Amino acid sequence: MGGLPLLDQVTLGDHVCWTVDDDATRLEAIAGFVRAGLGARHRVIYAGDDPGAVLAGLERHGIGTRSAIDQGLLHATTAEASYLTGGVFDPEATLELWRGEIARARSAGCPGIRVVGDMTWASRRVPGAERLPWYEAQVNTFFLDGYVAGVCAYDRRRFDPLDLRRLSWAHPGAAATRVPFEPGSALRARRIRDPYGLRLAGEVDLSNRDALRAVIEHLFDEEPAATVDVSELTFADTAASRILVDAAGHGALRLVGVSAPLRRLLDFHGARRVPRLTVVPR
Questions:
Q1: Mean pLDDT value of segment 71-90
Q2: Domains of the chain
Q3: What is the pLDDT of residues 34-46, one digit of tens each?
Q4: What does the alpha-carbon distance between residue 278 and residue 126 come to, in Å, rounded to a whole number?
């Protein structure tokens, strides 16, 4: 069984909010995502409720879980051992946990790491869960090197629709039970080193603006000057343009590959009056 094509286009560097409302669809799509990861020799982690049932389901879909576990390529853990250590959700501690998992995968020589986070635990009103949107935005920095793929599964039957919307905004991409992840309509942000900065591709609007804001907030963490290549950005709304202009208040920013429509939006937000902002057209 090949799995439903809901997550087939998720690749290393993608962080996807996946809202599901059908258990069979959920398991089949996870199986496809896990199978692709194991086939690429990625380290694959499932974190959430009842990992034993998920492993059994993967077996039913033809995945040799025991062999993958023995090889260190597959790991399934509970929410209590990942998101809820100490019985509460501590976003900073959870970020450190994932930072450690990524470091261990790199040191083991894995070419990438894939994570499926079953976020059902957050619907139980555990202490700290109110900070989940902030966490989901901040974790985007882990994906900039194109080494991690993450799918956060939210059961729409368990969450308030308004809460789900806020959580989705913190993700660069989205998928649903009958709506596959489409890279072209998502935001893809990748780190570049020469020159130092980011490359942005795809679309940015209300659906993923919080994700853009989070990565731009960390743009100058390593260097006082940065380049953002927007030549592959096919759409940016006015609020996204404002985020880019405001970034120059924290360091010297060079925007390259700027389209004519984006240039007009940047100028609307005063780009020409910002001394440390350089705009280079396509």
A1: 96
A2: 15-181 (3.40.50.300), 187-281 (3.30.750.24)
A3: 999 999 999 999 9
A4: 45
